Amino acid sequence: MLELTGLTVDYGTTRAVSGLDLSVSAGEAVALLGPNGAGKTSTLHAISGLVPVRGTVRFDGTDITGHDPAAIARRGLIHVPEGRRVFPTLSVHENLLMGRIAAAGRHGWTEDDVYSLLPALVPLRDRAGYALSGGEQQMVAIGRALVSAPRMLLLDEPSLGLAPVIVRAVYDALAQIAADVPVLVVEQNTVEALRLCSRGYVLTAGRLALAGTAAELGDRESLLASFLGTRDAAHA
Ligand SMILES: Nc1ncnc2c1ncn2[C@@H]1O[C@H](COP(=O)(O)OP(=O)(O)O)[C@@H](O)[C@H]1O
Ligand SMILES: [Mg+2]
Known about the structure:
This protein is α/β, with parallel strands linked by helices. The protein has one domain (2-235): Rossmann fold, CATH 3.40.50.300. The protein is 37% helix and 26% strand. It contains ten helices and ten strands. Strand 1 and strand 2 (14-24) form a beta hairpin. Helix 3 packs parallel to helix 5. It is globular. It starts with a strand and ends with a helix. Adenosine-5'-diphosphate (ADP) binds at residues 11, 14, 16, 34, 36-42. Residues 40-41, 82 line the site of magnesium ion.
């Protein structure tokens, strides 16, 4: 459903992503892992049309490489960015309603569906974005993405900066969502990501270091070795 071929992202002379091949099929949840600076966010930005890119991005059979970000979102490829980006002066409910812009008339989750999935938001309905905790903001950002009628969700480090119990709640919600919508989740929290996902890719310094099933990647030794770029040594 999503297919990246030779994806390359440059910022001036800095190569952030180098020749990445990656795919996500319908019904799949896939993890994109790797240390800070590996090129994970740049990969998601490239998919969403937020940075210039070489290589190709195909979504649902259409080449969307270099398309306008708003046009990509209207296709249902919905990005939940790092740092959640909740509108600070809008209430929780108004933030959810903003999701309808990207939905562009397609059928998605209703706001009531979001409150059922994320009941912690019910008592916060009228609270302003700026007054929410990090975990509450993450839930609002995910809820807004659902109202956008996603055909696929791109999530950038949903666990970042959250307490473990909140991470668990966010990932419980994502597990329910992933039953309906394919997901590509970027994480440094490999344990949670590999519990959610059936497969994953590991990036280091912009290059694919390792790809495999969650079970294969959950083998800490090979994962750590791939982070350090010593995979061959670990398997010797
Ligand atoms: N806007 C930018 N301008 C210049 N360099 C950038 C920019 N964004 C990211 N980079 C660089 O690209 C590399 C990959 O960054 P990023 O994609 O944010 O990695 P990750 O999300 O895995 O932490 C890093 O070396 C980072 O410093
Ligand atoms: Mg990042």
